[in-house]
Write a structure and sequence with these properties.
This protein has 248 residues and is an alpha+beta fold. The chain contains nine helices and nine strands.
């Protein structure tokens, strides 16, 4: 679902919803299914699909069903090339994941968001890590966001905090990070709330001592607490220093 912002173009918003719906389903999708699932008027849905097929973003298949067209891959090539520059750091993340027994990701700041650029799964992990290229809004908080907020100039940080749902909570977490040197975001006890995982993050410093990235351990609720926190942080900081020396 698209975030609530001003000055949206309704039909373009609908087109994005159509693309996201089809992309999230493993099988082919029919127009009636789109109309029912997304509550789109039939005529509007028809025009959106026709436009996307003409642009080669969707492909029409037998049975009047649709799927993402292979040509859409060209739109992601720029992102893939940008992510490729972090590839030399992958062995370091793989080693850390094996060493500590938790999944690992490396995130970098990008304006008001942070982007997961590398990930390494623990042997037992199924799907805790964020796929490279996944973006998160800093204002929404989380262990990565707290470190990036703490490193920002006051004016930029205050502007993002003003947009946050709970700025007081984020300010407290920023203060904790500045005191401790790490950010721990524990899973919520409320199943309706996020996160449903534990995340432990440390900064990756550039030569000028600014934060150029964040290294994060991800685990099922309560699993991080079973480890010696000092040992985890020591291993993470060694990897973070190595990444800082090689960060592009």
């Amino acid at each position: 679902m698209i975030a609530e912002i001003k000055n949206k173009i309704p039909v373009l918003e609908r087109a994005v919803e159509v693309m996201e719906y089809i992309a999230s389903h493993p099988g082919r999708v029919s127009q009636p299914e789109l109309i029912a699932a997304l509550k789109i008027p039939q005529a509007t849905c028809y025009r959106i699909i026709a436009t996307l097929v003409a642009a080669n973003w969707l492909v029409k298949l037998p049975g009047n069903k649709y799927d993402i067209a292979p040509a859409i891959a060209r739109l992601s090539r720029k992102t893939e090339l940008q992510l490729e520059k972090y590839r030399p750091l992958q062995p370091a993340l793989d080693y850390l994941a094996r060493q500590v027994g938790h999944s690992v990701k490396l995130s970098v700041p990008d304006a008001s968001e942070h982007v997961s650029v590398l990930s390494a799964k623990a042997p037992w992990d199924i799907a805790l890590t964020a796929a490279p290229g996944t973006r998160f809004e800093i204002k929404n908080g989380g262990s990565v966001a707290i470190i990036l907020l703490a490193d920002m100039a006051n004016s930029k940080r205050n502007a993002l905090l003003a947009q946050a749902e709970n700025p007081a909570k984020l300010k407290k977490l920023i203060s904790d990070y500045k005191r401790d040197g790490f950010s721990l975001n524990a899973a919520s006890d409320d199943p309706a709330q996020r996160p449903q995982i534990d995340a432990l993050s440390v900064p990756v410093f550039a030569e000028d001592k600014s934060v150029c990235g964040v290294l994060t351990l991800l685990s099922m609720p309560g699993e991080l607490a079973k480890n010696d926190l000092a040992e985890l942080l020591d291993a993470m900081r060694k990897t973070a220093r190595f990444c800082g020396e090689l960060m592009p």
